[in-house]
Write a structure and sequence with these properties.
There is one protein chain. The chain is mostly helical and 188 residues long. The protein has 2 domains: 94 residues, RNA polymerase sigma factor, region 2, helix turn helix motif (Rna Polymerase Sigma Factor, Chain: A); 73 residues, Arc Repressor Mutant, subunit A. 70% of the residues lie in helices and 0% in strands. It has 8 helices and no strands. It is globular and about 50 Å long.
């Protein structure tokens, strides 16, 4: 069997046998990560999305892989799968419930003005930058995004197979919250 870096390099060169080998070796791991992330009803579609992300833009995601130690490719693919699950859950929460037809009056908007929406977007962007800055690892960044962007509770995040129990997730959130508060107080 090729080393992980050699296998990734062969995939980047477009070798069909290398892609088949990558699928053979890691498809079950991708499925397990997605399943533990709680996206069971769309498992097959999301599995395809993981592999599509690796192929997209001339395999740009796979080019980010750094083989620093044995098992790194599996960890890298698990991280890609978690991000697919996070994006899916975020998109699912953002979708309004469908009720069939749309009433004409429902199109009128009594929400926030464009100016306040822009202010909210800027504040949200500032918060997300601060969260990325205080995240100690990719796992912590995933936890923070799941909590603050997707609105998941610590218990829901702990069930996603990130390697932490509820208390561990709560500790990550608490430490990040303290750091973010001090960071946002420092920066206008």
């Amino acid at each position: 069997m090729d080393s992980e870096r050699a296998l990734a390099d062969r995939c980047l060169r477009g070798e069909k046998k290398a892609w088949l080998e990558l699928l053979r070796l890691y498809d079950r791991k991708v499925l397990r990560v997605l399943f533990r992330s709680g996206v069971r009803e769309e498992l097959d579609d999301l599995r395809q999305e993981v592999w599509a992300r690796l192929l997209a833009r001339d395999a740009a995601a796979l080019r980010d892989f750094r083989a620093e130690n044995s098992g790194a490719l599996g960890l890298f693919l698990a991280q890609v799968a978690r991000r697919v699950a996070i994006d899916h859950q975020r998109a699912r929460r953002a979708r309004p419930p469908s009720s069939g037809g749309v009433e004409p009056d429902a199109l009128e908007h009594e929400g926030a003005s464009p100016e306040s929406a822009l202010g909210d977007a800027q504040a949200r962007s500032r918060l997300l930058r601060a969260l990325d800055e205080v995240a100690g690892s990719a796992r912590d960044r995933d936890i923070l995004r799941l909590h603050y962007e997707a609105g998941l509770s610590a218990a829901e995040i702990a069930q996603m197979g990130l390697g932490l129990e509820v208390r561990g997730v709560e500790a990550v959130l608490r430490r990040a919250r303290e750091k973010v508060v001090s960071l946002l107080e420092e920066k206008p």
